[in-house]
Write a structure and sequence with these properties.
6 helices; single chain; two-stranded antiparallel sheet; alpha+beta; globular; binds nickel (II) ion
């Protein structure tokens, strides 16, 4: 069991998107040793238009994923994995709040987020906000993103290269694990069960 955590930590030093077209050059998530200190405060707006802070989620595990709704491939796959993991947890799934935070608040309005999250899981919460609110939340979990425009893009069209990692947050609000893109739901489930059992 301990080995699993070590493997995850090792992986997390190389958080990258495997898809160069959609997610651009390798974006690393550094300083993973201090994962537990990756914690709020943040203030964001849910897909129902409610302002929330990190304090609203204390007492629950959170599976947090940063991405954007126009993402052609990686984000939908990872959000599918998050949703699958919550369902596979069965009764324990209620202890876990799945969350999708946009790195593209300009396009991902409350309304757009509401339409998007329901494609994945009935309990998935979409979070957006001002550019500053989103940037500040991304900084907490050391998620990087930058806009990229492909040569044949329509005017105003753009993609966003971003770190692709699922973050597990503990009930005290501190980071517990980072899962790289390509992880399977059963690995996430085993990890969460381990933490639930230990508490
Ligand atoms: Ni993406």
């Amino acid at each position: 069991m301990k080995q699993l955590a070590v493997i995850i930590l090792l992986f997390s030093a190389f958080i990258i998107s495997p898809n160069a077209d959609a997610h651009g050059p390798k974006l690393k998530n550094k300083e993973t040793a201090s994962l537990a200190s990756n914690r709020g405060p943040f203030e964001l707006v849910t897909h129902t238009g409610k302002t929330v802070t990190d304090r609203d989620y204390l007492g629950k595990y959170m599976l947090v994923y940063f991405g954007y709704t126009h993402c052609p491939d990686v984000c939908p796959i990872d959000l599918q994995i998050v949703s699958e993991a919550v369902d596979m947890l069965g009764k324990d799934g209620a202890k876990v709040q799945p969350v999708f935070v946009t790195v593209d608040p300009k396009r991902d309005t409350v309304k757009v987020m509401a339409e998007y999250v329901k494609l994945f899981h009935p309990r998935l919460i979409g979070l957006t906000g001002t550019k500053a609110q989103v940037a500040s939340a991304a900084k907490i979990y050391r998620m990087q993103s930058r806009r990229s425009v492909s040569q044949n893009a329509e005017p105003g069209e753009y993609l966003i290269d971003h770190s692709a990692a699922i973050v597990l947050i503990g009930p005290d609000g501190g980071g517990l694990s980072l899962f790289p893109h390509g992880i399977t739901a059963d690995v996430i489930v085993a990890d969460i069960k381990r933490f639930i059992k230990a508490n």
